[in-house]
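We treat protein structure as text, and this decision shapes the records that our systems exchange. Below, we set out a record of this kind in full and without editing:

***
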Amino acid sequence: MVDILRDIGVIARSLDSIANIEFKDLDLTRGQYLYVVRIDENPGIIPDRLADMIKVDRTTASRAINKLEKQGFIEKREDTENKKIKRLFATGKGAEAAEYIRRENTLSNEVALDGLTQEEARKLSVLLKKVKKNIESEWNTVKKGKKRDY
């Protein structure tokens, strides 16, 4: 069996390290950039949906959201129908940061796909989406408390 998870892990950690260094000037710490971009792309998203999207637990998401709010990157607004629900929105500062982060993402994509034909890049994307779907299914199962058999 081919072990692609090590390579995927190395790629993910490398990109994460690059981002943490490059986004230091934005005053964003480890992983916060993911939240800023997803909130900017999904105005009004609720924290639970954001946590699912990023694949973190609610406590981790809550901590990051509160910190980003204090830093002025995002704001929470009450839902018009249900006052218990807080919706998340990027501020002007958050939208500017998200645009910068998306430009970095574009460059990282170009670097990652360098030397691949358009067809190879398309096939890789299709295959990675299948892998992602498989892993998301397992993530949901384990998140609900089920143990996997090894």
Q: What stands out?
A: The chain has six helices and two strands. The mean pLDDT is 93. The CA atoms of residues 26 and 94 lie 10 Å apart.
